[in-house]
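step: validate -> pass
step: tokenize input -> pass
step: predict -> running
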Amino acid sequence: MKFARFLCVAIAACASFVYAQTPASGYPVRPVKMVVGYPPGGTLDIVARSLANELQKELKQSFVIENRAGAGGLVGAQSVLNAPRDGYTLLMAIGSHTVLPAVQPKMPYDTLNDFVPVTMVGTSPNMLVVRADSPARTLAEFFQQAKASGLPPNYGTPGIGTTTHVTAVMLERASGVPMNHIPFKGSADTNQALLSGQVPVIFASIVSAGPAIRDGRVRALGIVGEKRSALLPDVPTFAESKVPGVLGNNWLGLLAPAGTPAAIVNRLSAAIATIGARPEFQANLRLQGVEPQNVGQAEFGRMLAHEVAAYKEVARSAKISNE
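step: predict -> pass
step: emit ->
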């Protein structure tokens, strides 16, 4: 009898050990929370909800969106780090995640070491945009006219320290053409400033400026990226216009807090790779002005590290700060 009891205990212990070693074997066994650090209704929120819906189908468990807006995404990110590192609290982030450590003097966490990449799902690159009646038809013409005027052209962005602001500074430095920054309170105000003639040029993402480009009210002269966006294939990249090294892809992707079991991160990444290949999911992203980009953990991680380093250098040299 004692031996039988010992055998049962030993078997149970072994089973517990095996389960502990393979945390993804039954993951997820309860609802998973995906935190969005911005209010409901925005592009990141809509894409996160679409992804959550597909993950629910793929992994047979609820994925719930929680909006924790504040401080440009810092509040939401911090809430994820305060939760257990068990794969049940994740962060749906956007490109500003890698800009914040460059422009925020006192970060409450380490952007690269406190999070691990899961998957990038899409991008909405930044562009230089002028009104349709602008005499500049190309980026080269814009630079030539700016130099000829003898005055730095004013440009608008949604605010100091935004991805669009940093993109503008990088373009300014790479081209050697000085410009004067006029910050506005958000994308809507920035777009209106261009349409009303308050500024002759703005920097904006496909999400915010895409509709006005497609209906002919404004024109994009250049866009961030190694290749042209399929959403706006007629717009050349900055690199094509001989202004390389300009960042501002405005990626959207899923992150997990550091310490999350690798098996769980791998399971999530594999599931999203399957989802990302589905035409209906890709169509949903494009409707939001987001170009599908299914980028796995390793490549996503390298991109994050590159952006953090590059943005820090630009913010330091240009003295960009949200303080």
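step: describe -> The first strand starts at residue 32 and ends at 36.
step: cleanup -> pass
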